Amino acid sequence: VQLVESGGGLVQPGGSLRLSCEASGSFFSTSIDVMGWYHQAPGMQRELVATRSRDGITNYADSVKGRFIISRDNARNTVYLQMNTLGPEDTGMYYCSASPSYPPSAFWGQGTQVTVFS
């Protein structure tokens, strides 16, 4: 399974970004159930931000509830992360991950950088 993220960039506080992660590989369609996003701030450990199962069950970290929305297009093997009301604490690398079960951690993308600056 290969995961490719896109959509990171620079944004001012209060702004929005939408991340995308496209999965490929024959194994994906038959065995991957959960996809999600992790955030790694500079000098910090990677933390799970949001997950979504194939049938639509979602989970969010408390820090992003009400601000981030995870969605998924199963037909396109793509998961999205809509990030709103961004703040400096949201700065860091965002990694897409996928697994047969929760939490998503079997397969990883290369990451995409998000920088919130004023």
Report mean pLDDT, rounded to a whole number: 94
Terminus-to-terminus distance: 37 Å
Please summarize the sheet with the most strands: 7 strands, mixed
Rg result: 13 Å
> How many strands appear in the DSSP assignment?
11
Instruction: List the helices and strands in order.
Output: EEEHEEEEEEEE
Please tally the helical runs, counting DSSP H or I stretches of 4 or more residues: 1
Uncertain residue ranges: none
Which structural class is indicated by helix and strand composition?
A: mainly beta
Helix content: under 10%
Provide the β-strand percentage band: over 45%
- The backbone outline, from C-alpha atoms, is globular
Compile the SSE list and pairings:
Blueprint: E1 2-6, E2 9-11, E3 17-24, H1 26-31, E4 34-40, E5 46-53, E6 58-60, E7 68-73, E8 78-83, E9 92-99, E10 107-108, E11 112-116
What does this protein look like?
The chain has one helix and eleven strands. Strand 9 and strand 10 (about 105-110) form a beta hairpin. The chain has one helix at about 25-30, and strands spanning about 1-5, 10, 15-25, 35-40, 45-55, 60, 70-75, 80-85, 90-100, 105-110, 110-115. The mean pLDDT is about 95. The longest helix is centred in the first third of the chain and has 6 residues, at about 25-30. Strands 2, 4, 5, 6, 9, 10 and 11 form a seven-stranded mixed β-sheet that branches. The chain has a four-stranded antiparallel β-sheet with strand order 1-3-8-7. The protein is mainly β. The chain is about 5% helix and about 50% strand. The N and C termini lie far apart (about 35 Å). It is globular and about 45 Å long.
